[in-house]
């Protein structure tokens, strides 16, 4: 896994690559959160603390729904495979 960043006029762009799998919820959140919420380093400490707590709440919420979406997609794939008579393939997907 590697990450590449580039500062452009539109902001920093990050790329994350994996081998043999897609991104997991934590990796997606790691790419998303810096674009969603940023607090200036020179913000007052109380603001930084409040923002950090808010960010942690957002991360938990987003992680929950990303994981639910991934499970739902797997369920859909299993259903399609089973409808096609591919029960062994569906069993493999369930084990992922």
Structural classification = alpha+beta
The biggest beta sheet is recorded as: 2 strands, antiparallel
Beta-strand percentage range: 5-15%
- Alpha carbon gap, first and last residue: 20 Å
Order of helices and strands: EEHHH
Helical element count?
A: 3
Total domain units: 1
* Strands side by side in the biggest sheet: 1-2
Summarize model confidence as the mean pLDDT: 88
Shape descriptor reads elongated
Q: What's the β-strand tally? A: 2
Q: How many whole angstroms does the radius of gyration measure?
A: 19 Å
What can you tell me about this protein's structure?
This protein is α+β, with helices and mostly antiparallel strands. It has one domain (about 25-95). It has helices at about 25-35, 45-85, 85-95; strands at about 1-10, 10-15. It has a two-stranded antiparallel ribbon with strand order 1-2. A hairpin with a 2-residue loop joins strand 1 (about 1-10) and strand 2. Helix 1 crosses helix 2 (about 45-85) and helix 2 runs antiparallel to helix 3. The longest helix is centred in the middle third of the chain and has 39 residues, at about 45-85. The radius of gyration is 19 Å and the shape is elongated.
């Amino acid at each position: 896994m590697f990450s590449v960043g580039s500062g452009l006029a539109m902001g920093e762009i990050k790329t994350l690559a994996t081998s043999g799998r897609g991104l997991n919820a934590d990796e997606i959140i790691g790419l998303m959160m810096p674009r969603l919420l940023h607090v200036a380093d020179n913000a007052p400490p109380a603001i930084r603390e409040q923002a950090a707590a808010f960010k942690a709440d957002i991360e938990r919420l987003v992680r929950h729904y990303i994981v639910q979406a991934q499970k739902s997609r797997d369920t859909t794939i299993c259903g399609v495979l089973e409808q096609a008579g591919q029960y062994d393939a569906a069993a493999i997907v369930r084990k992922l």
